[in-house]
Amino acid sequence: MQLELQDKVAVVTGASRGIGGAIAELLSGEGMRLVLAARTADLLEEVAAACPGPAAVFPMDLRLEEAPRALVAFALETYGSVDLLVNNAGATQRGDFLTLSEEAWQDGFALKFFASVRCAREAWPHLMRSRGAVVNIVGIGGRTGTAEFAIGGAVNAALLNLTKVLADRGVADGVKVNAINPGSIATDRLKARITKAAQDGGQSYPEAAAAMARKLGVARFGRPEEIAAAVAFLASPRSGFCQGAILDLDGGQTRIL
């Protein structure tokens, strides 16, 4: 399928590893020119080096209020336009609601939610000119609350609502806005959880992984490349009638309507 993304400009946050890195490599393979943002410069450089096309890196802590403005300005200075914003940055702390600190709550919203708000706001006028797109990488915890995922669930729910808000605005402004809810994806974070579960339960890694998959009700864990493929589709003209769509990519873990 020809996605018609050649020479378009994508800004990808949280691009230094995992899902973000996979998104960067796939979009680059489709001919897009990239701006990759995250806090860790050396990891960003590794991702950029793995991309087959142009990929500029922007090491920055997106929790800082001024960072999104600087990021978009860098993209315009480097390539002259913005056609796609992928809001992927942000990891939240798991734990008991009664013991999660105020700092953990502030940090969770600062990076994943407020950075997405600010990046969208800064990129919006340029996306209007290019009739571009926003893809928010959120997470299924925004649909179903679980006791150990209080911060992440709240942040994700807010980001899902923001997706609908921006999509509503985008109908008039010519900006396509959609979201992807990854389930359990085989990134370093998930592998660390499985390793800890194996240690706590006296199991091998494969045994702990199989047990976790059974508990979640899925046949296997997802791959970062599968999320990246969905991003490319939502970025492309092939998804022209998708507006405010929330795509659960979770192997069937989410069973609510």
Give a quick set of tags describing it.
Rossmann fold; alpha/beta; seven-stranded parallel β-sheet; 7 strands; 2 domains; 257 residues; 49% helix
Structure description:
This protein is of the alpha/beta class and 257 residues long. It folds into two domains: 9-185 and 223-249, Rossmann fold, CATH 3.40.50.720; 188-221, no CATH class. It is built from eight helices and seven strands; from the N terminus they run βαβαβαβαβαβαααβ. Strands 3-2-1-4-5-6-7 form a seven-stranded parallel beta sheet, sandwiched between helices. Strand 1 (9-13), helix 1 (18-29) and strand 2 (33-38) form a beta-alpha-beta unit. Helix 3 (67-79) packs parallel to helix 4 and helix 6 packs across helix 7 (205-216). The radius of gyration is 18 Å and the shape is globular. The protein starts with 8 loop residues before the first strand and ends in an 8-residue tail after the last strand. The mean pLDDT is 96.
Low-confidence stretches: none
The helicity comes to 40-55%
CATH-defined superfamily of the largest domain: NAD(P)-binding Rossmann-like Domain
Category by helix and strand content? alpha/beta
Shape: globular
Query: Distance between termini?
Result: 30 Å
Give the total of domains: 2
- What would you say the CATH architecture of the largest domain is? 3-Layer(aba) Sandwich
